[in-house]
Write a structure and sequence with these properties.
Elements (H helix, E strand, L loop, with lengths): L6 E7 L5 E9 L2 E9 L11
Antiparallel strand pairs: 1-2, 2-3
């Protein structure tokens, strides 16, 4: 995957309809920030920062 303006984006929809998106910001080819969103749940909730 090629970064555009230092940002990588991707998404996938799996067989039963769940969606997962990922956005990675790069600075000098190192990960500066990562964001994962979509139709999913995280457990235990108190472990999410």
């Amino acid at each position: 995957m090629k970064a555009k303006n230092g940002i990588l984006k991707g998404e996938i929809k799996v067989k039963n309809g769940k969606l997962l998106k990922c956005k990675i910001e790069l600075d000098d080819n190192k990960i500066k920030n990562i964001r994962i969103t979509g139709d999913f749940f995280m457990y235990p909730e108190e472990k999410i920062y």
